């Protein structure tokens, strides 16, 4: 059971981040929206978006200082697969107005029907994709 | 835009990145292990999402009692409740990309600080994908009913 304390605690911190941004700044903590908003004419909004992203980058650094090691990151996918994945994630999150954080963490918390539909959809296509890559013919 | 507003955004980002690191979500193999029901299923991501949605929901509960945010003139939360083809199509594409490599935007951006070439490649491709969307849709109005 203790194996799930870190995921649960880490998740609670992510939820606290979303609650803070909402209650202080009135914004949704959706990473694809915060990052994507910097690619257009963001104007004055650019400043808080950059501040959030700087904090996001410092998060693992704080972890390194607190725990003594970097978080584990194991990447098995080939470079062509990673490039294709990045394109799909970038395009898909802009077309679909969100990712795991905006639709998942924030959208599910406020019971948004759009976000619930989005989460069900991206979970389903992700599960099918993983099945095909790991147990099927794609690779 | 003032100092406290910026500090709130910075601290929120820091909490998010630290939470990702603690949760194990920055590890694509762990994410793929959650999505892999035909393999040795790893349920830990469900605990991450559960913890995150639970605490986030407390925030949205408090919001209902507030007229405006502490540091901004108004809440900027989407009000359109209806799913549409764009939303579902975009979510479907995002899910395929997520399942291919195990990266979604938060862990990938936070992971930049590790300096791994694979993460740099993923984020570069993701930004290209975002720009492609902007370039292909910029001339069309975003409002409903404008599409033919």
Compute the number of structural domains of chain A.
1
- The total strand number of chain B stands at 0
Total helices of chain B: the number is 6
Structural class of chain A: mainly alpha
Please report the distance between the alpha carbons of the first and last residues of chain A: 35 Å
In whole angstroms, the N-to-C terminal distance of chain B is 39 Å
C-alpha geometry of chain B: globular
Mean pLDDT level of chain B = 91
- SS-based structural class of chain B? mainly alpha
Radius of gyration of chain A over all CA atoms, rounded: 17 Å
Oligomerization status of the protein chains: heterodimer
Question: What does this entry look like structurally?
Answer:
The complex is a heterodimer of chains A (about 140) and B (about 150). The mean pLDDT of chain A is about 95. Chain A contains 6 helices and no strands. Chain A has one domain (about 1-135). Chain A has about 140 residues and is mainly alpha-helical. Chain B is mainly alpha-helical. In chain B, helix 5 crosses helix 6. The longest helix of chain B is centred in the first third of the chain and has 21 residues, at about 5-25. Mean pLDDT of chain B is about 90; it is low at about 145-148. Classes of the chains: A mainly alpha (about 140), B mainly alpha (about 150). At the A-B interface, helix 1, helix 2, helix 3, helix 4 and helix 5 of A face helix 1, helix 2, helix 3, helix 4 and helix 5 of B.
